[in-house]
Specification:
Elements (H helix, E strand, L loop, with lengths): L1 E7 L4 E7 L8 E8 L10 H15 L7 E6 L10 E2 L2 H9 L8 H14 L5 E5 L9 H4 L5 H7 L8 H15 L8 E6 L3 E7 L2 E5 L20 H10 L5 H10 L2 H6 L4 H9 L3 H24 L5 E5 H6 L1 H8 L11 H5 L6 E2 L8 E4 L4 H18 L1
Parallel strand pairs: 1-4, 4-6, 7-10, 10-12
Antiparallel strand pairs: 1-2, 2-3, 5-6, 7-8, 8-9, 11-12
Helix pairs in contact: 1-3, 2-3, 10-11, 11-13
Bound molecules: adenosine-5'-diphosphate, acetylphosphate and magnesium ion (MG).
Magnesium ion (MG) binds next to loops.
Length: about 375
């Protein structure tokens, strides 16, 4: 089966076409690509990115057509705890959840609708970032707020990047030769959006994002954790400020961008290397926040075997990994500086022998995980 995987991130659209047999783990890649810097001068929005993608596929597949499409959908709310076949009703439901993931669900909806328009009979599957975190216990997913917040509005912690955290957990356990159900770890997915997950017995026990992907770590353009009084205080002080405008500021004008003036880790690191004090401050803030989470989650899982870095920053930004690990001396973490700096790809260990936690880099592959889930659901539906 040929599966087109569409991953609409906040600033990028990754796609792959994979040849997958049902029951296998995602098959092999026939073609893949990336549309970067969406929102920039070249590609204005996700609709334009998808038009570009359709043209590329015509050329790259040489006349072959895809059998199914699998989409990354960030917020599945309380309703979706596993992949689903997409209908117009499902798209509307994902759209209804858009306020909870304003950078993501609207992009996914554009992707789903564009595919429905281009290939109306193609089975489509939505795979949710929130699904992996459904294993969090209630004392972890609850907020200590009046009960009606949850009962009326579904306000609780959901967690995101689940497809990636799940995939990376499996790979890391395999790499270390630990049965997944015995594997305790802290997994840091550091991309434009970033989150860290406490993995206990191979499952998500806690994670840094919450009701929306705004919580937790200092990200490219998002605040991460914030005293909620900041929000009420700004709304009170500035009568022209609307909830929507403030939401926009916290999601797109904060994080590294607010402190360093740039949201992209490469640019921020280069500026810090040139002695830019704001860039240095931004990196210190991001590293401090992450190190605090690692310490907390090490305790939460009853002692982690490994700290795992993944996604754009986690896989590539050696200097940032070193900055974080340098703060973990209390956990006995010791990096192997050469292994950390090596420009290798693939799953690798970057801690020194005897380090308190083994530190790994595991490339994420959300596309492969989505392709596997899509093929399984579509084949199962055809058979049943
Ligand atoms: N070689 C590199 N060194 C440092 N940071 C990098 C490198 N390559 C990519 N990144 C960073 O990874 C981030 C994007 O990660 P990615 O996982 O692709 O994000 P998303 O999927 O959220 O769009 C950016 O901050 C980018 O600067
Ligand atoms: C949930 C989330 O933050 O996703 P991304 O990293 O793609 O922005
Ligand atoms: Mg991503």
């Amino acid at each position: 089966m040929l599966v087109l995987v569409v991953n609409c991130g906040s600033s990028s659209l990754k796609y792959q076409v994979r040849e997958v047999a049902a029951g296998t783990d995602g098959g092999t890649v026939l073609t893949s690509g990336l549309v970067e810097n969406i929102g920039g001068p070249q590609v204005r929005d996700h609709t334009e990115a998808l038009e570009l993608l359709a043209r590329r596929l015509d050329e790259e597949l040489g006349g072959r057509t895809v059998d199914a499409a699998g989409h990354r959908v960030v917020h599945g709310g309380e309703r979706f705890s596993a992949p689903v076949l997409v209908t117009h009703e499902i798209v509307r439901e994902i759209e209804r959840l858009a306020p909870l993931a304003p950078l993501h669900n609207p992009a996914a909806v554009l992707g789903l609708r564009a595919v429905l328009r281009t290939w109306p009979h193609l089975p489509q599957v939505a795979v949710f970032d929130t699904a992996f975190h459904r294993s969090m216990p209630e004392h972890v997913w609850r907020y200590a707020v009046p009960e009606e917040f949850y009962e009326r509005w579904g306000i609780r912690r959901y967690g995101f990047h689940g497809t990636s955290h799940d995939w990376v957990t499996g790979r890391a356990a395999q790499f270390l030769g630990v049965p997944r159900e015995d594997f305790h770890a802290v997994v840091a997915h550091l991309g434009n959006g970033a989150s860290v997950t406490a993995v206990r017995g191979g499952r998500s026990y806690d994670t840094s994002m919450g009701y929306t992907p705004l919580a937790g770590l200092v990200m490219g353009t998002r605040t991460g954790d914030l005293d909620p009084s900041v929000v009420t205080s700004v709304l009170r002080r500035d009568p022209s400020m609307t909830p929507e405008a403030l939401d926009g500021l916290l999601n797109t004008a904060s994080g590294l961008r607010a402190i360093a003036g740039h949201h992209d880790m490469r640019t921020v690191q280069e500026a810090a290397d040139r002695g830019d004090e704001r860039a240095e401050l931004a990196l210190e803030m991001a590293a401090h926040r992450l190190a605090k989470y690692v310490g907390g989650y090490h305790v939460a899982v009853g002692g982690a075997r490994a700290l795992v870095f993944t996604a754009g920053i986690g896989e590539n930004a050696a200097a940032f990994r070193a900055r974080v690990c340098g703060r973990l001396g209390a956990l006995g973490v010791v990096l192997d500086d050469d292994a950390n700096a090596a420009r290798s790809r693939g799953t690798r260990r970057i801690s020194a022998p005897g380090s308190g936690l083994e530190v790994l880099v595991v490339p994420t592959d959300e596309e492969q995980a989505i392709a596997a889930a899509t093929a399984e659901l579509v084949a199962g539906t055809a058979a049943g």
